[in-house]
Amino acid sequence: MPRYFFHVRSQTGLEVDPTGVEFDSLDDAIADARKAGAEMLLDQAVEEVRARPQASFEIADASGEVVAKVPFSG
Fold this sequence. Notes:
The protein is α+β, with helices and mostly antiparallel strands. The chain has 2 helices and 5 strands, in the order E-E-E-H-H-E-E. It has helices spanning about 25-45, 45-50, and strands spanning about 5-10, 15, 20, 55-60, 65-70. The longest helix is centred in the middle third of the chain and has 18 residues, at about 25-45. The chain is globular and about 30 Å long. This is DUF6894 domain-containing protein. Pfam families: DUF6894 (PF21834).
């Protein structure tokens, strides 16, 4: 099962996911990133959301190659 890493890209830089999560497919990883991004926006205070309006997940495979980008907003 492939492992994908959900790095967070924002205006302040890149927060690297050192652990990753195993998924059956890239499509499953993207679906999970969309759900997680929406939940993060709901959980954060309004000020934090405004500070990271362009935040997104950069999903990388085990080799470190970014295979998908998913904005928190969708």
